[in-house]
Design brief:
Residues 29-89 form the HTH tetR-type domain. This is DNA-binding transcriptional regulator, AcrR family. This protein is mainly α and 217 residues long. The protein has helices spanning 2-11, 26-46, 53-60, 64-68, 74-98, 105-117, 128-132, 134-137, 140-159, 170-190, 200-216. The chain is built from eleven helices and no strands. Helix 2 (26-46) packs across helix 3.
Length: 217
């Protein structure tokens, strides 16, 4: 019996890296944001391997123990940053697509596509090296949860387009998102130097606008 338990323990998958906790108080939020900002600065300036927990803590101006209070290791820090980038994108959709209800629906769809493609000046930084490390911090369940959250936000945004009538079916909205999200991620893999086809976001925006317009005609 003891041997069986030991075998099960050895065969059990290691838990995926994750931050210790989410910041709740303003001071904690400031600290974690400063850590993420330092992480990205080092990642971009010196390369991914240089973005260690110690170098990030020093760059952010904190003791290493402060960083370890939130992130037990570099993988957990990367996991936290990727989640932060996704949450920041959802917040952008709230602010720039859902909130400006008076704007015509084509303009709001254009903003939705740009935000999802990550090409705005205030988009969270995310590059091909970060994408290639996703399997170290996420399994299929985590990927599914992230895409479900983005799908729900897209459907929420489209539902606020009162001048788009009738409203498209959820399956159509999900299909458009799959095209946009898949295009963003795959172009990073084939064009790591960000040498994308000229106006690729514009073409995807046109695709979405034409498809949605066809459903309302």
């Amino acid at each position: 019996m003891g041997s069986d338990s030991a075998d099960l323990a050895r065969s059990a998958p290691n838990p995926l890296p994750a931050p210790h906790k989410r910041p709740v108080q303003d001071r904690a939020k400031f600290t974690v944001q400063a850590i993420y900002d330092a992480y990205v600065r080092i990642w971009r300036r010196d390369g991914p391997d240089a973005a260690t927990t110690r170098s990030v803590a020093a760059e952010a101006g904190f003791a290493i123990g402060t960083l370890y209070g939130y992130f037990p290791n570099k993988a957990a820090l990367h996991s936290g940053y990727v989640r932060h980038a996704m949450e920041a994108m959802l917040a952008q959709i709230d602010r720039d697509v859902i909130a400006p209800a008076a704007q015509p629906w084509p303009e709001r769809v254009s903003a939705l596509v740009e935000i999802t493609c990550g090409t705005r000046s205030d988009s969270p930084y995310f590059d091909v090296a970060m994408l290639q490390r996703e399997n170290e911090i996420a399994d299929q369940e985590r990927h599914s949860r992230a895409f479900a959250a983005l799908t729900n936000k897209w459907c929420e945004a489209i539902a606020t387009l009162e001048d788009l009538s009738p409203q498209p079916e959820r399956d159509l909205v999900t299909s458009l998102l799959l095209a946009i999200w898949g295009a963003r991620r795959y172009q990073m893999l084939i064009s790591p130097d960000r040498n994308q086809p000229q106006n690729w976001v514009g073409h995807l925006t046109n695709l979405c606008q034409r498809t949605l317009a066809a459903t309302s005609s």
